[in-house]
Design goal:
By secondary structure, the chain is α+β, with helices and mostly antiparallel strands. The chain has a 5-stranded mixed β-sheet with strand order 3-2-1-6-7, with helices on both faces. A 3-stranded antiparallel β-sheet has the order 10-11-12. Strands 19-20-21 form a 3-stranded antiparallel β-sheet. Helix 11 packs antiparallel against helix 12, helix 11 runs parallel beside helix 13 and helix 15 (559-572) packs antiparallel against helix 16. It is built from 17 helices and 21 strands. It is 37% helix and 12% strand. Residues 194-222 have low confidence and may be disordered. Among the domains are: 2-192; 483-652, no CATH class. The longest helix has 27 residues, at 135-161. Residues 22-188 form the DDE Tnp4 domain. InterPro entries: 6-hairpin_glycosidase_sf (IPR008928), 6hp_glycosidase-like_sf (IPR012341), AGL/Gdb1 (IPR010401), GDE_C (IPR032790), HARBI1_dom (IPR027806). One of its GO terms (molecular function) is 4-alpha-glucanotransferase activity. This is DDE Tnp4 domain-containing protein. Its cofactor is a divalent metal cation.
Length: 652
């Protein structure tokens, strides 16, 4: 066992002769009666400590649980069975082996932080004062930290998997011990399962082994492996398509829900990006997809090329569809009202804009459904964004324009979309015609001029000028004119839709009114509905905030920042400020780098409260926050190279 663990550490983490990463984790509890200060820890909370040794795949090898919060990690280690058996040599750890490419013999060791003593079997970093100015010691500390971080990551996975750990546990200490032990066992079980990724395996039969257990994926894998990941995910979601939509809830494919309008457009955009960037990327379009769901009226699901699945999604939108969710009712959604289960999608024949939804559901990423009886918000979406959402219009243009080009290049067999009318008449658009219709109408219906103009569609609803509307045709017409963070997303996806001068004015308003330290406000601070601090536990009768109703009504989300920076780059050249914008964009990413370095999760959060303040109900490390920042950084690096010697140096 020990040699296999060491092999994994060397192969996956680049750290030889390591048999585990060691650390302690405090689980916050309600102080037991008459317990004094024994559970009181250095973080000024009451806790029980889990001491764990973790392998290279985030699995727990050995755990000690139940220690009082006041005890140090080193003290717990010295008194626990693991520490005692390592000390007296009864764990049957092999004596060691030569380091790779060397004749230097070294023992097998576990790695820990400064809280643990230096032993022949326990390696810790050099103290800071010893490492300062010594490149070898600094490099050693860095390599050790990367290996040791696995135990911190395992704790993070554990606490995110089991919600009971995300709040203070009001249980007897012995019950907390049982919960910790059982969840550690379940955690290992989930890590071991080869089919728990479910749908990914369904359309990725030939995927590489790491795809079947993403928790074992090591950082820094080759780019081709990342493309394999992307391919597997694209095909897996293709398998799930139904009603022309990608599900917002998979449920293992058993009771999937199709009540979001944006996922399918992002999926199509991801195919465009994959084909454009992956080696032999366009081969993806012909990959077979084993569908999970039969089309209505068909006896069984089919296997078909990806390009036909894509075409089905687009044809369904162009034809238009109104349907009711399967199993509609409290069994699938405890808060949604009856009308919310009715789903509509379509393409406006005049503008080419995708539209859908209603006032009782929330089909984009701004998906907060009210749940407070006391505040009267239960079943009432905070941000339905029905009609035509600005970023979905941009995505539709991006996809249609790209498919027109791929059809001309004989890579995509379908020339366009068609609608059969009730009388039998047929309306058909090529993809080029569809894209042009969107382009021709976009500024007319979304731009809010800087000064009152005859072009104003609803001057009585204009609150901010020199912005782009958030939606067009919403049931709540005033919602069309709210200043939100979604049009910079549209700009990054489809800059061709925007007048460059208008775009720059609008982006200046985003910088002035929405930009925060780490992300973008989700609503104009001057809007009547703005509430910048998110608290999902708010039990008041205030309808603006009860049960976190303001999730997307002001709090500063991190993921739109990357799109905002990319939008700046897209229009900087035509506004004569390209080099200046590159420098400013690097500076805007600097707070994210600081957050990344300071975070125990080595990530950036889902959202912040007003002014970038910590939000207790935010995910502390969210993939799309990091992913969009990395996309922006990638484009910045390309821009910096294009500028050559005149390029600004990126901030550290």
């Amino acid at each position: 066992m020990w040699r296999k663990i060491a092999e994994d550490f060397e192969k996956l983490r680049g750290f030889p002769n390591c048999i585990g990463a060691l650390d302690g984790k405090h689980f916050v509890i309600k102080a037991p009666a008459n317990s004094g200060s024994i559970y009181f820890n250095y973080k000024h909370t009451f806790s029980i400590v889990l001491l764990a040794l973790v392998d290279a795949c985030y699995k727990f090898i050995a755990v000690d649980f139940g220690a009082y919060g006041r005890n140090s990690d080193g003290g717990i280690f010295a008194q626990c069975n693991l520490g005692k058996r390592l000390e007296n040599g009864t764990l049957h750890v092999p004596i060691g082996k030569n380091l790779p490419g060397s004749s230097t013999f070294a023992p097998y060791v576990i790695v820990g932080d400064e809280a643990f003593p230096l032993k022949t079997y326990l390696m810790r970093p050099y103290p800071g004062h010893q490492a300062t100015g010594d490149a070898n010691k600094t490099n050693f500390n860095h390599r050790l930290s990367l290996a040791r971080r696995l135990v911190e990551n395992a704790f993070g996975i554990l606490t995110q998997r089991f919600r009971i750990f995300q709040r203070r546990m009001k249980l007897a200490p012995e019950n907390v011990d049982y919960i910790i032990l059982s969840t550690c066992v379940l955690h290992n079980f989930l890590c071991e399962q080869k089919d728990y990724t479910g749908l990914i395996n369904h359309s990725a039969q030939n995927a590489q082994p790491h795809l079947l257990n993403p928790l074992s994926v090591q950082p820094g894998r080759p780019a081709n492996d990342a493309f394999a990941d992307a391919r597997a995910h694209i095909l897996a979601y293709a398998a799930c398509l139904r009603h022309g939509l990608i599900p917002n809830l998979l449920d293992g494919g058993h009771n999937a829900r199709f009540n979001c309008r944006d996922a399918v457009w992002w999926w199509l955009q991801s195919i465009k990006q994959y084909c454009s960037e992956a080696p032999q990327g366009y081969a993806l379009l012909g990959e077979p997809v084993a569908r999970l769901f039969a089309r209505d009226g068909e006896p069984a699901p089919r296997t078909q090329p990806l390009y036909d699945v894509m075409q089905e999604a687009l044809d369904t939108h162009f034809q238009g569809l109104v349907f009711r969710e399967r199993n509609a009712g409290r069994a699938i959604d405890a808060h949604m009202t009856d009308k919310g289960f009715n789903v509509q999608i379509g393409i406006d024949p005049e503008t080419g804009f995708p539209f859908g939804g209603n006032d009782y559901n929330c089909g984009t990423w701004m998906d907060k459904m009210g749940s407070s009886e006391a505040a009267g918000t239960r079943g009432r979406p905070a941000t339905p964004r029905d009609g035509s959402a600005v970023e979905l219009v941009a995505l539709a243009y991006s996809v249609a324009a790209w498919l027109a080009a791929q059809h001309r290049a004989a890579r995509f067999p379908h020339a366009g979309v068609a609608r059969r009318h009730r009388g039998g008449a047929l309306t058909a658009w090529t993809y080029a015609q569809w894209a042009e219709r969107i382009r021709r109408n976009f500024e007319r219906f979304f731009w809010v001029p800087a000064a009152p103009s005859a072009a104003d569609l609803r001057p009585d609803l204009v609150h901010r000028r020199a912005i782009y509307k958030d939606t067009h045709g919403a049931t709540r017409p005033w919602a069309d004119y709210q200043l939100r963070c979604n049009f910079p997303v549209a700009m990054a996806v489809a800059p061709e839709l925007f007048d460059p001068k208008h775009a720059w004015l609008a982006l200046d308003n985003v910088e002035r009114l929405l930009l925060g330290p780490l992300g973008l406000k989700t609503l104009d601070p001057a809007d009547w509905a703005y509430r910048g601090d998110y608290d999902n536990s708010n039990n008041s009768d205030d309808p603006n905030v009860a049960h976190g109703y303001n999730y997307h009504q002001g709090p500063e989300w991190v993921w739109p920042l990357g799109f905002y920076l990319r939008a700046r780059l897209a229009f900087a050249q035509e506004n004569g400020v390209y080099a200046k914008t590159v420098a400013a964009s690097y500076a805007a990413l600097a707070p994210l780098v600081s957050e990344l370095r300071a975070s125990p999760w080595r990530g950036v959060p889902e959202l912040c409260n007003a002014g970038g303040a910590y939000c207790a109900d935010s995910c502390r490390s969210q993939a799309w926050s990091s992913g969009t920042a990395l996309e922006a950084l990638h484009e910045l690096e390309l821009a910096r190279r294009a500028l050559g010697p005149a390029a600004p140096a990126p901030a550290d």
